[in-house]
């Protein structure tokens, strides 16, 4: 598939083309990429040898093959990798597979739930959803050290008599354990889901309250 198709594939699976910023991340990605696979690295502009990830972060870590990037025919603005390294390539080439990943980012702005989801969809992919204990552990250990509000908005929303993640999956069904919200049938406007880092618990809160929030990309 070409790069655009690869990006669409990752988004449809609630992720993005892989971001690799350390040797450890490269080693993990290499296990999943035994043959050349698209990753999220692109030139910031044609003919410019500056490269950025999907979150617009300029890369400091690189793993180029010898004599790469070579920008053959002045048209190689995208990147593929295999188990040994990276090389630049034409973005419309259709011979590569794709390597997806999903990352969380804490936004230290106080917004309502609706404002938060709009921000995430404008600048990232969507409000975060948590589908495994490992992801929940990431929330509890890393984000707790950085958040400016006790609770943070997540992608949980009560709609049509059921809690859903904003990716369309039922909240309690996508985790290895149910989401123990304080109310499984909340009254309006307490129909937005947050996570409280003091109590380490899920909450249903007034959607108009203003919290920090977690996006994924």
Describe this structure as you would to a colleague.
- This is Aggrecan core protein.
- InterPro entries: C-type_lectin-like, C-type_lectin-like/link_sf, C-type_lectin_CS, CTDL_fold.
- It comes from Bagarius yarrelli (Goonch).
- A hairpin with a 4-residue loop joins strand 4 and strand 5.
- By secondary structure, the protein is α+β, with helices and mostly antiparallel strands.
- It is 18% helix and 29% strand.
- It is built from 4 helices and 14 strands.
- The longest helix has 11 residues.
Short précis:
18% of the residues lie in helices and 29% in strands. The protein has four helices and 14 strands. Strands 8, 9, 10, 11, 12, 13 and 14 form a seven-stranded mixed β-sheet that branches. Strands 2, 3, 4, 5 and 6 form a five-stranded mixed β-sheet that branches. Strands 1-7 form a two-stranded antiparallel ribbon.
Q: Can you tag this structure with a few keywords?
A:
CTDL_fold; disulfide bond; alpha+beta; 2 domains; 5-stranded mixed β-sheet; Mannose-Binding Protein A, Chain A; 7-stranded mixed β-sheet; about 220 residues; C-type_lectin-like
Strand-helix topology:
Elements lengths: L2 H10 L3 E2 L5 H10 L4 E7 L7 E2 L25 E4 L4 E4 L7 E2 L1 E2 L2 E8 L1 H11 L2 E2 L5 H9 L9 E9 L2 E4 L26 E5 L4 E5 L5 E6 L1
Number of helices: 4
- Which stretches of 5+ consecutive residues score pLDDT under 50? 170-178
Total count of strands: 14
What is the top-level CATH class of the largest domain? Alpha Beta
Our estimate of the beta-strand percent is 25-35%
Name the CATH architecture of the largest domain. Answer: Roll
| CATH domain fold name of the largest domain | Mannose-Binding Protein A, Chain A
What is the CA-atom radius of gyration, in angstroms? 19 Å
* Largest sheet report: 7 strands, mixed
What is the average of the pLDDT values?
Answer: 84
The assigned structural class equals: alpha+beta
Overall helicity: 10-25%
């Amino acid at each position: 598939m070409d790069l655009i198709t690869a990006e669409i594939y990752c988004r449809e699976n609630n992720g993005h083309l892989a971001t690799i910023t350390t040797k450890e991340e490269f080693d993990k990605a290499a296990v999943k990429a035994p043959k050349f696979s698209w990753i999220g690295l692109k030139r910031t502009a044609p003919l410019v040898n500056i490269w950025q990830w999907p979150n617009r972060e300029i890369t400091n870590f690189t793993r180029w093959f010898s004599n790469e990037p070579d920008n053959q025919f002045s048209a190689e603005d995208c990147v593929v990798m295999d188990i040994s390294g990276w090389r630049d390539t034409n973005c419309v080439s259709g011979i590569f597979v794709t390597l997806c990943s999903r990352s969380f980012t804490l936004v230290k702005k106080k917004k309502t739930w609706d404002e938060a989801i709009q921000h995430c969809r404008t600048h990232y992919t969507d409000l975060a959803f948590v589908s495994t204990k490992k992801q929940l552990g990431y929330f509890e250990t890393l984000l707790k050290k950085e958040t400016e509000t006790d609770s943070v908005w997540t992608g949980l929303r009560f709609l049509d008599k059921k809690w859903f993640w904003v990716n369309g999956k039922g909240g309690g069904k996508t985790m290895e354990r149910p989401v123990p919200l304080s109310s499984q049938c909340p009254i309006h406007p307490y129909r937005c889901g947050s996570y409280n880092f003091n109590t380490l618990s899920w909450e249903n809160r007034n959607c108009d309250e203003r919290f920090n929030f977690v996006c994924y990309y």
